[in-house]
């Protein structure tokens, strides 16, 4: 009797989770859901940086976005990557100069363990990805961003998956913008492929028409650089 | 032309950069006699190699006697200045170095590192070569590329623009607000100027209802003007019966 009850609770639980999952995937890419509350609190934007041109592309894009709309920006880069955060700090301080007297919201900078180094084999990267995910979870619980901007470094994978789980659980409904790096002309990067196939990215951008033909859900927006 | 002392030709610098990577194959290729001879034949007088984390040190040389002057260093913070002073840039295939050079409109040969595991870098170099913005080579074919290249046939790269994508990213908010406002009874048109953070709503409705509806989507809006002027583009229902006196109300909107 108790076993039956347990099984039926389990089945209902799984069914509810699946329904929620389907709902979240169906809503992905749709305009942001009304939140009701949260109208007064500042809305966080998480920006994932990475070496090898990713940071330059991202800062180039940020320069074009209305800064006051994407306020309280949080930058995340790999722990092994010192240059990216430095560049982001420079970018932020140039914004402060531009704004002049206006008070600019404090932006935050974090480093995160990397899921895969350039050249590391895919097999060992499973373990390092797990560690990186745990660290990412801790950071995401602290930040809970509304918008996530990323363009390909491996560090964005744990962050985006956690953001997706937050949606499923109902902690935070965030919007993931993925911009594939300009270096990808024929094939998507591993990060891009995961976010595209799993429907995690709400909006998916590519910079070359060849890629758009292969991945029809992506938007072709021309070169950013 | 000024430094033609001792019958020397004006300085023509070839700058080689490997970025933050380790790319010994390229440094070794630059050190090879075949490549140096080809560079001399092409009229280059100086060769400067930024060798990054590599462990192969090229042989330094003072130049003269029809040979090229060779110098190297590991890292520098003034790469941009060196790029600017170069007559030819030979670079690894990293997108950062490629676009920095292309923006300066310098002739560029990109050498693809064949030792990298996931060699996606060649994609970008090959694509840009097809568009005739640069030459693409491998370490062992570099001398051939230098011999065959025709710098006049290269097409200057016009820098890309992030504005279209920024617009799309903005629009996600616009869509949600528009949808919410169009649902309100009496609203006929909703115009959103994302850049000015301005919404204008046309129709017969209570202004408080508009503010409330925007607030319900998680954004803030406040009234800034109210008039009875009309405007051209309509985005809501078309089949609404013409209302006797539609009033336009403007709101400041803060999105996301």
Automatic annotation (TrEMBL), chain A:
GO terms for biological process: dolichol-linked oligosaccharide biosynthetic process. Gene3D superfamilies: Glycogen Phosphorylase B. It comes from the Eukaryota. The chain crosses the membrane at residues 6-26, 122-141, 161-179. GO terms for cellular component: UDP-N-acetylglucosamine transferase complex. It is found in: Endoplasmic reticulum membrane. GO terms for molecular function: N-acetylglucosaminyldiphosphodolichol N-acetylglucosaminyltransferase activity. InterPro entries: Oligosacch_biosynth_Alg14. Keywords: Endoplasmic reticulum, Membrane, Transmembrane, Transmembrane helix. It is a single-pass membrane protein. Belongs to the ALG14 family. This is UDP-N-acetylglucosamine transferase subunit ALG14.
Automatic annotation (TrEMBL), chain B:
GO terms for molecular function: hexosyltransferase activity; metal ion binding. One of its GO terms (cellular component) is UDP-N-acetylglucosamine transferase complex. GO terms for biological process: dolichol-linked oligosaccharide biosynthetic process. SUPFAM superfamilies: HMA, heavy metal-associated domain, UDP-Glycosyltransferase/glycogen phosphorylase. PROSITE patterns: HMA_2. Gene3D superfamilies: 3.30.70.100, Glycogen Phosphorylase B. Residues 159-222 form the HMA domain. This is HMA domain-containing protein.
